[in-house]
Amino acid sequence: MERGERLRGSRILQAKVLDHPQMKVKLQHGVKEFRRKEDGSGKLGSVVIEDFVSGALEEQHSAGVFVFIGLVPNTGFLKGSVELDERGFVATDPTFMSSMPGVFAAGDVRDGSTKQLASAVGEGAAAAIQIRGYLDRLDRRSM
Questions:
Q1: Could you report the per-residue pLDDT of 49-105, keeping only the tens digit for each?
Q2: Which of 105, 109, 127, 130 is the most buried (most CB within 10 A)?
Q3: Is the Cβ–Cβ distance between 97 and 123 less than 8 Å?
Q4: Which is more confident, 90 or 4?
Q5: Which residues are within 8 A (CB) of 134 and not within 5 positions of it... i.e. 6 or more apart?
Q6: Could you give the count of Cα atoms lying within 13 Å of 77 in the half-sphere of its Cβ?
Q7: Which of 86, 60, 92, 62 is nearest to 73 (CA)?
Q8: Please, which residues bridge with residue 44 across strands?
Q9: Domains in the chain, start-ordered, CATH in brackets?
């Protein structure tokens, strides 16, 4: 589903999606609601999709969902606090620390990240180790 009137992103990825036999592109549609199975398992039962043109709702039963929110980082709240690049990504040093001491960034919000889930997980783990070291150093200074 794409909220807009056309697909965005690289032409190569668009072609892969459009040519995939198990994918159907729905322009001007969006997810309205995720519903659990009624068996009490807590698993996904269906997805309610809204047609933004007609307002119609459609319920689809899916085994799973991949949510892709977009390529624009949600960092507006950080403006003026930490250094952001021209596209709004957080600038970090090699330890994942931002321009504000004690504030770290990892994953898709970080300038230079690969925008891949596995990389984001690895960066998060590496940042956590760096944060622990940073806090240990602060502790030693206060003794």
A1: 999 999 999 999 988 887 777 778 989 999 999 999 999 999 999 999 999 999 999
A2: 105
A3: no
A4: 90
A5: 95, 97, 102, 104
A6: 2
A7: 86
A8: 36
A9: 11-60 (3.50.50.60), 76-142 (3.50.50.60)
Chain centroid to CA 50: how far? 21
Token pair listed for 77: 């709240």
Q: Cα 10–76–131 angle (5° rounding)?
A: 95
Number of residues assigned to the chain: 143
Strand-pair partners of 31: 49
